[in-house]
Amino acid sequence: MTKIRTCLFGLGHMGRNHLRVLQENSRFELVAVIDPVTDALPANAEGVPLLKQLPDDLKFELAVVAAPTELHYSLVTGLLQRGHHVFVEKPAASTHTQASELVALAETKGLRLAVGNIERCNPVVGALRGVIQSGILGRLVHLNGLRAGGFPRNVKPGNNVILDLGVHELDLFRMILGPIDIVHGVGHCTQASSIYDAAEISVRSKTGVTGTVHVNWLTPQRMRSVRVTGSEGLCLVDYIAQSCELFGHNLQKKNTPFTDLNWTTDANGLDTAHVPVVAKESLKEQLDQLFLYLAGKPHILAVGAELIESVSLVEQAEKQVAMAHVLPFHDPHPERKL
Question: Which CATH number fits domain 121-281+315-324: 2.20.25.10, 3.90.870.10, 3.30.360.10, 3.30.450.30?
């Protein structure tokens, strides 16, 4: 089997993760890592050249871009113009206009372009979609996403918690509900006056389902979950534990694929069951999905219009917060001047 010659751009936190899974996947051949500020590769990356810039004569089919967000647009544009397929970490670009231009350029060049909205590839999201499609929850009413904790080591101007974390839930809501509108946003700037590090975003689908996304960098414990409320039941998903639980009355009596689960019923008649999830590292599943996409086969990655909308939703949410809903942090015990 011919391996896909791949070049990795960026060796920060996510870049090192991409380096690891690329080297572990036999369908990809990592031919170089490009990073202008890193002096050495991890010890397990022996044999892969580390370069400060891309040489004109380096031959490869796929570029994996894990550079800082503010560099995505220019870097991806250059790679597409040189004739390379591109997989870029989220968000694909900083604005709706930039994302649209990248998608149009890829289409013009006949190249593949996908963005790393990684929760799409979390096995528990597949379980959640199966729950929703089964109808066991009844009519969908509300989605609530929580993504908290994990303050970045280096927060640069232009980045914020909506761009960093909110993109995942907004993309997931869009994938489940179809087109959505951002209807409200409120944010906090607690560590720096111009950078949102906590935000609450409200959305509404075209069919009337509502959703709330809470994101923050401040919570000491990393928390990643989504709660889906239907007219007849509740589904609670934990991304980290890769668990999916059902709650409701008389759920086990419904004619669904979940009838034979190991249900328990409490004294109040509440049925509870765990939906089976085959655990797998999301980044490895994402790489498998990328292989399918490059081969022209069905996949679940965000490409084309969905790539554009994933950026657009973040941009809309940022505008909602910026218009009138930013809550600057006020220290309740400021130092008194003597």
Answer: 3.30.360.10
CA-CA distance, 11 to 152, in Å (whole number)?
15
Q: Do residues 41 and 19 lie in contact, with contact meaning Cβ atoms separated by under 8 Å?
A: yes
Domain range annotation of the chain: 4-119+284-301, 121-281+315-324
* Cα separations in angstroms, 276 against 120, 175, 261: 17, 21, 9
Q: String of b and e for 27-41 (b: at least 16 CB within 10 Å)?
A: bbbbbbbbbeeeeeb
What phi and psi, each to the nearest 5 degrees, are found at residue 156?
-100, 150
* Res 336: pLDDT: 40
CATH number of 4-119+284-301: 3.40.50.1980, 3.40.50.720, 3.90.1150.10, 3.30.479.30? Answer: 3.40.50.720
Residues in Cβ contact with 100 at an 8 Å cutoff, skipping those fewer than 6 apart: 308
Residue reference for tokens 């560590």:
191
Q: What is the pTM of this model?
A: 0.90
318, exposed or middle or buried, with CB in 10 Å at 0-12, 13-18, 19+?
Answer: buried
247, 233 contact by CB (below 8 A): yes
pLDDT tens column, 74-115? 999 999 999 999 999 999 998 999 999 999 999 999 999 999
Q: Kindly report the CA angle at 22 between 19 and 24, in degrees rounded to 5? A: 110
Among 335, 319, 330, 302, which Cα is nearest to 163's?
319
Same fold, 4-119+284-301 and 121-281+315-324: no
